[in-house]
Amino acid sequence: MSEPRARVGVLTPSGMLGAGIREESVRRGLALGADVITVDGGSTDSGPYYLGAGTAKTTAAAVRHDLRILLAAAAGAGIPLLIGSCGTSGTDSGVDWVAGIVDDVMAEQGLSLEVARIYSEQTAAGLAEPLDAGRIHPLPPLGELDAATLESCTHIVGVMGHEPFAAALDAGAQVVLGGRATDTAVAACVPIMKGLPDGPAWHAAKIVECGGQCTTNPRSGGVIAFVDADGFEIEPLDLDAACTTTSVAAHMLYETANPFLLREPRGTLDVTRSSYVAVDDRRVRVEGSVFHEAEQKTIKLEGARLTGYETISFVAIRDPHIIGRIDEWAAFMRTVLTGRVEQTLGLADHEYAFDLRLYGHNGVLGGLETQGATTHEVGVMLRVSAADQATATAVAKVSNPLMLHLPLPDLPYLPSFAFATSPAEMERGAAYEFVLNHVVDVDDTTSMFRSVQ
Fold first, then answer.
1. Nearest alpha carbon to residue 189 among 433, 33, 173
2. What is the pTM of this model?
3. pLDDT at site 322
4. Are 168 and 453 in contact (CB under 8 A)?
5. Are the C-beta atoms of residues 51 and 200 closer than 8 Å to each other?
6. Rounded to a whole number, what is the largest CA-CA distance in the chain?
7. Are 226 and 260 in the same domain?
8. Which structural domain, as residue segments, surrounds residue 401?
9. Are 277 and 335 in the same domain?
10. Among residues 120, 141, 153, 431, which is most buried (max CB within 10 A)?
11. Backbone angles phi, psi at 81, to 5 degrees
12. Nearby residues of 303 by Cβ (< 8 Å), 6 or more positions away
């Protein structure tokens, strides 16, 4: 697949596998001349749980729905289907989970496509050598890495670029299911393989990564980009949506530390001098994007570890006397609960932790809130964390009468609050935190990944 082509059509029907794909949008993309179908299978957006637990955010039914459309489209058009970050976090189990659904769908539809799996999980033992050799470096805001942190992770993934996908296609794969990958890797792959410049290929990939988010109607579905030697042209698949110069250029602001620079494993996309020109009322032409090869290729590491177990309770307060002094009540609640836990459970502060959030009153930003809002009701969420589930739930149970009736010291009556559920305590199970935001120096950007066909 290395022969240069005038242009390559990259069809991205949705920002994420399982988020919902429209069959009519895919048909239109194929009719326009798509050469590859690409979609992202995951993200770190939803926090560390999915990596820590090795569990998918999406339900199998939703993934199956999208794959029925995509596999039939790829087979019918004779073009490859590339999926990155399978199973949300790109763990090996996530790749196998999506592969199992692919196998089922192909059997249902009578399809016979060559499927490749690319695994991205790393082990603490496997990373010991580059760590000892000083080839692992932190990204802000984290500091230097130690072996104990690696060993504490339940799952570690390396974030691949386009190269492992390209290798799988060169080996004959028609469907490539990748572990953790940059959001752009799958979309940049085929244009680069076809001999087109890296600058337009990576910039187009960045813009299409979230499907319709770069359009005037982000809910409309997907987009198709045509990459050529000088730039790319992009349009939405929904006829009622449009790409504008603003909607396209603005997507470089999304999930980037610098809206002009985007780092990939083997270099950096630079859109400082890119131009955005409307072709018509639905399409935009982009030129001037360049790609700078890095002196040192790197693979980013992501890892999560268990922090404990959580139990939550939620009540709604509408008592006007409490609402009028809600910050005072919350401070009093924290003091009383700490004392009750010590008295009844004999737990010291370091043996558990709790967070009290006042939704409807600074619940999102807390002390950073700048809007002086007034309200007639507040939702109170108590989240307790401890080393084991039983302790977290015990602390939440101690809070039960306080969450239901705690008055301020000078109130002459017991107020009543409304629990959202019965039982009031909801066990969330294991909780995780991200502890790796580091890169590994590599000579070969495929060396940390394993492919099976």
1. 173
2. 0.93
3. 95
4. yes
5. no
6. 83
7. yes
8. 307-434
9. no
10. 120
11. -120, 120
12. 51, 149, 150, 153, 155, 156, 157, 434, 435, 436
